[in-house]
From TrEMBL:
GO cellular component: plasma membrane
Residue stretches making up the Major facilitator superfamily (MFS) profile domain: 42-418
CDD domains (UniProt xref): MFS_NepI_like
InterPro entries in UniProt: MFS, MFS_dom, MFS_Efflux_Transporters, MFS_trans_sf
Protein name according to UniProt: DHA1 family inner membrane transport protein
GO MF, one annotated term: transmembrane transporter activity
TM helices/strands, residue ranges: 41-67, 73-96, 108-127, 133-157, 169-192, 198-217, 238-260, 272-291, 327-346, 367-386, 392-413
Keywords per UniProt: Cell membrane, Membrane, Transmembrane, Transmembrane helix
One Pfam family hit: MFS_1
Superkingdom in the source lineage: Bacteria
């Protein structure tokens, strides 16, 4: 039995749903053959995959000194391994997505996890810095293509009015990895050596691979090729929301990258208490991303306006109340919640505005996020290098204030007219 589901698009009750050329709203067939329990298992599997890949991305940060010593390179050279992964994700992810656009999404998920496990196993076995760097680029690209395929599989197994919530579950794998996976990996690395932490990543990736083989159903790709997808995925309306995504994360990481110096010099927090502040922020982000799907399903554009305003207010509060540890903790909780809540809506808007190009577009927000992180970190670094620890927060605040009118302007963007629902349909077959 085949189940018609919808690839990236707005649910039928939404006013901003793409319309076909006859002026009627596209019909959406719900995947009634999949029980809610089965759908939850599939989403949990996709969450696990995102958690494992997200943990591997950040793992190098916690064991940077150990890797530098073992590979006999400087700390800055070892830090390039983080940049290499981000570059692989930002550039290689969309490229691999284009190359695999006509493949079954389940096959893409399986292939990405298998190759990701091999790439990380290679890291354990080699001692050459150049090969290590190349393997990190490949691993980043594989995470990028996995992200796009995971969103396709996730929204294909739920009714259209729950697509935002499905996206939030998938995205939450990354946010939880930042709050939990990376710190745990660091502990393993400190206890067993950095290779031990990467062996753990390989093991978890294999578990995610087995779960995907057993639980995730076949999700056929759409008929259009990479060229047809790119025409819609890189339309100006989509690029506008990708630009918004870039600015949101630039504002966040201009401040967040240098949060530790801020806590030490301004708030007066040191030692293990710093980890508690970082954990609180990570937990708030994860909680926000889990709950943000409901807001995306209701009104993603409005959620982005409220969220960007909340980020700006939170950064302003951090600057004004930086001397109070309790108030700073509350400010970080608010910042994490607003960022987490916005994330599913950013993904939702990009995919819906791309219309028939949603299969490719769903890999692009991750690229915009990584470029935004790189830009924001650099901007905050310039600011803090020439001023006080608070200057990075001010830099983030300035960018955040600019983001608010951008979010308001993008709220008027509408999805394109399409020929009909068939152009956007994906087929879900029981595994």
């Amino acid at each position: 039995m085949e189940i018609s589901a919808v690839s990236p698009a707005q649910p039928a009750h939404r006013p901003d749903l793409p319309r076909n050329t006859t002026g009627k709203k596209n019909m959406i067939t719900q995947p009634a053959a999949l029980s809610p329990g089965r759908a939850r298992l599939i989403l949990a599997t996709l969450f696990l995959g995102m958690f494992v890949l997200g943990s591997a991305e950040l793992l190098v940060v916690g064991v940077l000194d150990l890797i530098a010593d073992d590979l006999q390179v400087s700390i800055p050279a070892a830090g390039t391994l983080v940049t290499a992964y981000a570059a692989g994700l930002a550039l290689g992810g969309p490229i691999l997505t284009m190359l695999t656009i006509k493949l079954n999404r389940r096959a893409v998920l399986i292939g990405a996890l298998l190759l990701f496990a091999l790439a990380n196993l290679l890291l354990v076995l080699i001692t050459d810095y150049g090969l290590f760097l190349a393997a990190r680029v490949v691993a980043g690209a594989l995470q990028g293509v996995f992200i796009g395929a995971a969103f396709s599989a996730g929204i294909a197994v739920v009714p259209p009015e729950r697509m935002g919530r499905a996206m939030s579950v998938v995205i939450s794998g990354v946010t939880v990895s930042a709050a939990l996976g990376s710190p745990l990996g660091t502990l393993i690395g400190q206890a067993l050596g950095w290779r031990g932490s990467f062996i753990a990543v390989v093991g978890l990736t294999v578990i995610a691979l087995i779960a995907t083989l057993v639980l995730v159903p076949s999700v056929a790709s759409i008929d259009s090729g990479a060229v047809g997808q790119a025409k819609h995925a890189f339309a100006r309306r989509v690029l506008a929301v990708l630009g918004l995504t870039f600015l949101v994360y630039a504002s966040l990481y201009a401040a967040l990258t240098y949060l530790v110096p801020f806590l030490q010099d301004v708030t007066g927090v040191s030692g293990a208490l710093i980890s508690a502040f970082l954990l609180a922020y990570g937990a708030a982000t994860a909680a926000g991303s889990f709950s943000g799907g409901r807001f995306a399903d209701t009104n993603a554009a409005r959620t982005l306006i409220v969220g960007t305003t909340g980020v700006a207010v939170s950064l302003l509060a951090l600057y004004l109340i930086g001397g109070s540890a309790v108030l700073v903790a509350l400010g970080l909780l608010a910042l994490g919640l607003f960022i987490g809540v916005m994330t599913p809506s950013l993904q939702y808007r990009v995919m819906s505005l791309a219309g028939p190009g949603g299969a490719l577009a769903q890999s692009l927000p991750a690229s915009a996020v990584n470029v935004g992180i790189a830009f924001g970190s650099a901007a905050g670094g310039v600011a803090i290098g020439s001023s006080t620890a608070s200057s990075a927060v001010i830099t983030g605040l300035i960018i955040a204030v600019i983001v608010i009118p951008v979010a308001w302007a993008t709220s008027f963007l509408k999805p394109p007219a399409v020929q009909g629902a068939a152009e956007r349909a994906a087929t879900v077959e029981p595994a």
